[in-house]
Amino acid sequence: MQILHPFAGSIQHYFDEIADPDRYRPDHCPQCEAQHPLTGHGFYRRTLVDDAFDGVISVRRYLCLCCKRTVSLLPEFVLPWLRFSISVIALFLAARLLSGLTLVAAARAAAQPGMLYQRGQFWIRRFQKQAPALSLALVPLAAPGHPRDPATDFVSRALRMLESIGWIAAHRFLFSQLRVHLLGWPASLVPAGRRITLASARPDS
Ligand SMILES: [Zn+2]
To answer: What separation in Å is there between the alpha carbon of 36 and the centre of ligand 1?
Structure first.
């Protein structure tokens, strides 16, 4: 299971912060609710592309000795299962779907001029599918008196809410409180990002 690393900051700041396993050690298990601090369980590595970074980051992992499942602390600037940072995806989607730029121009606006256009189309498809759920889920974060224009389509409405709330702040709320993924969980991980195992009751990781 992935939960958010309880810190907000830059990628460099994140590298400095994860060195000490005690610093953000969860004091209970979010999966079985055992009230014991989790045991350090190393790191896993994942790729990340951001504005000024393209490489591998380490994600700290803990193990619950009661249910034998792992919990990883994902930094809040990335989305589970996606290689590009939230800010890159946000810039691309806003440029394409709010400002109406072409795929190529939107990739340039997101500082990814060499990006495959299929990647952008994949984000757009997933965002369009997820937009109605986001428009509803983000209502508690929208400013009081936030104009609700019923004539606006879900995609524009969700994008405007995300732009005004801030994409990372919105992601923090959606993911931590509701287990909602900004672009929707892949079908193999519904409904809340846990891997489905049909043949056995193997714990997820
Ligand atoms: Zn547990």
So the answer is: 9
Q: Which of 29-33, 91-95, 143-147, 196-200 has the lowest average pLDDT?
A: 196-200
**118 C-alpha to ligand 1 centroid (Å):** 39
Instruction: Verify that 69 and 94 share a domain, yes or no.
Output: no
Predicted pLDDT at 106:
97
The residues whose Cβ lies within 5 A of ligand 1, an ion, are 29, 31-32, 34, 64, 66-67
Spell out the residues 6+ positions from residue 53 whose beta carbon is closer than 8 angstroms to its own.
Answer: 11, 85
Query: Could you tell me which residues come within 8 angstroms of residue 171 by beta carbon, excluding any fewer than 6 positions away?
Result: 76, 79, 86, 182
C-alpha of residue 41 to centroid of ligand 1, in Å:
14
Q: Residue 50 is part of which domain span?
A: 2-78
- Where is the domain boundary, 78, 111, 138? 78
Residue 161 CA, ligand 1 centroid: distance in Å: 35
At 197, the pLDDT band (50, 70, 90 cuts) reads low
Q: Report, as an integer, the average pLDDT of 165-182.
A: 95
CA of 35 to the centre of ligand 1 (A): 9
105 Cα: distance to centroid of ligand 1 (angstroms): 46
Whether 129 and 179 map to the same domain: the answer is yes
What SS3 state is found at 43? strand
